Amino acid sequence: MIMYKNKLFLFFIAALLSLASCQKNPTVVNYTNQYSTSSYPNSFDDLNSVLTSCYSNLRDQYLYGFDLMPKVLANCTHVANAAYSDPDWSGFINVTALAPQNGFVNGIYQALYAGVKNCNVTLAAADFYQQNYAKPNEAQEIDQVRGQAYFLRAYYYFMLECFYGEDWVPNPSAADTLGVPILTTLPSTLAEAQHPRASINAVWSLIESDLNQAITLLPSSWGSSEVGRVTEWTAKAMLGKAYVFRKQYTEALPLLQDVINNSGKSLMNYNDYRASFVGIDTLGNPVGKFNSESLFEINVDQNSLGGYGVYSSTSNASTINGLIWPPYGLGSDGYEWTSQPLGYGGNDGFHDMNVLRFGFNLGTTSTPGAWYLVNNPNFNSSKPASVTNPEFVMDPVYKAASIAARSNHTVDPRLYVCAMQPWVDSVRGAIDNHTWSPVAHPSYIFGDTDPWSEYGWSFRKYAPVYNNENNPILSSTNTGPADAADLFLLRLADVYLLYAEANANTGNNATALEYLNKLRRRAYGLDPNAASSLDYKSLTDATPAANANDPVLGHNPLYYERWAELFNEGHWWFDMCRWHLGASETAFYGTSRTVGALQWDNKAYAWPIPLTEINTNPEVPASAQNPGY
Predict the structure, then answer these.
(1) Is position 245 within any domain?
(2) What range defines the domain where residue 120 resides?
(3) Angle 5-17/103-132 helices, nearest 10 degrees?
(4) Does 195 share its domain with 336?
(5) d(C-alpha 127, C-alpha 134), whole Å
């Protein structure tokens, strides 16, 4: 938003023009796609339509609609191991190459500021409507619109500050380093649209002020037809999160405890929790939407006729993250090396080190005594090899051991929420829209020197498990169903983890452990509120990551539980940055398919201010760039 001054000014003028009525003298020739600024919004429905843009912007191509999760966050945290050499992606895989001209750096910045702009437009529209057209009994409803705009503006600034502010840079040179530009009103001139970088404290003060406003104005709940709107509890949870990120633990504790005790939210059981990240059941029925632990989510409509997601030519509310991390199924000939993805092939794969970190330690083919494909004793050589008549199958001894690891809980069950194991799990849609096939290694790994040394698991969380997003199969039209699962931006599990962190940092280790253990128990299918033999006994107890010789998460339940519970939900980058885990995470993952040996540079704790912002905004000169860029 701040980044392109001339375009930005026109963008704001367009926003102002959108606050208008289509009523006009039919003899007057004017633009038919603009409203009169003198009379819009003139109804509460009009005001709600202005508010809608604050929510819908979250599905921008550069945000949760497509790029942010699978292309950026999954790769800079090594959730994914990209098999794609796009230079913008590579900048987030090997962060020593991260640069101000990176397309994702620019696009995310632009999209987040567009969200800020939409919220400012909504707040101005609420004032205009109340002053000119509101009915006497609408004051509370107007305030609720304001509350939603304040919350969403705080959310956009939270993301901007965590990505682009100098908050997490080690040993900053100044007591209050640079944050991001602050804009809280609609500019009427180009100069008013150009702002310098504010201080970190100023940005966080705005976030906290907006969230406190939202708490005051928002209802505790909405009717069943409006469950997608944020509530008082969403704002309290987000403010608690902001306080934890700022290490203001005393301020965070009562807010987070209030959400836990009084919001009416509760943890789902393991089966429902696992189902919610796929979004549909085996029959295609929606599951997991607005569940008992969701505080803020993006509603995803899988229907996308005539197109899909952010590229659809028709109006829909879909996302297409699953295109980049689809699972793979056996090819129609029953062979792994012709495996087919349920989306784009060869973009992102599940990084092998994640399999180990969840505690799976049965080895790969190159491990002595571990698995490999064997001849299928039931293969009918008189018929062609196929999904139902494969010539090779997984070694039955290894398969039995893998299934036993699941049922005996010797592996963190959240691995099976997040990923799918070749030959043990199944998908529908790799061959056609009806045929089920075993999950296969991605076909691209068979060009590697030793593919059988790779686990080659597929994504499951937020992946298209029961449908192919390239439908018709192998078609370039991409007109099939898009993602099915809602995206959960804030849920009770996150609140539990933040509450545990705040307690651990205020000397209440017993409470911290209890809330970590509640999530651990749920993950293992136990009652979250009943002590179990699986409970962590201390904040330095061994975690499943200890099996992978993980020097950091292996004996840090707080770090491990945030990583495991919120895996692939877009949170771990912030945790890596605020805890300064960049070097240790890079060392743990070691390598990437596209860049080889991974490297770390502390400059990456703050993404660069986009080059376009520096080139077009005189208030943000090159001297105001983040360190190292």
Answers:
(1) no
(2) 5-218+606-624
(3) 30
(4) no
(5) 10
CATH number of the structural domain spanning residue 17: 1.25.40.390
**Region 525-533: what's the mean pLDDT?**
98
Check whether residue 326 and residue 213 sit in a common domain. no
What residues pair up with 419 in beta bridges, in sequence order?
Answer: 459
Distance in angstroms (rounded) separating the CA atoms of residues 364 and 441: 12
- Residue 490 φ/ψ, nearest 5 degrees: -155, 120
d(CA 460, CA 409): 19
Residue range 607-623: mean pLDDT, rounded:
96
Last residue of a domain, one of 466, 484, 508: 466
Token representation of residue 67? 């790029």
Report pLDDT digits (tens) over 351-397. 999 999 999 999 998 888 888 899 999 999 999 999 999 999 999 99
Please measure the distance between the N-terminal and C-terminal CA atoms of the chain and give it in whole angstroms. 21
Q: What percent of the chain has pLDDT over 70?
A: 90
Residue at 181: amino acid letter: P
Nearest to 405 by CA among 356, 459, 476: 356
Domain count, the chain: 2
**Mean pLDDT for the chain?**
91
Report how far apart, in Å, the C-alpha atoms of 230 and of each of 7, 53, 149, 185 are.
31, 14, 10, 22
Of 466, 483, 518, which residue sits at a domain end? 466
Model pTM score: 0.93
Which of 14-18, 121-125, 298-302 shows the lowest per-residue confidence on average (mean pLDDT)? 14-18
User: What DSSP state is assigned to residue 286?
Assistant: B
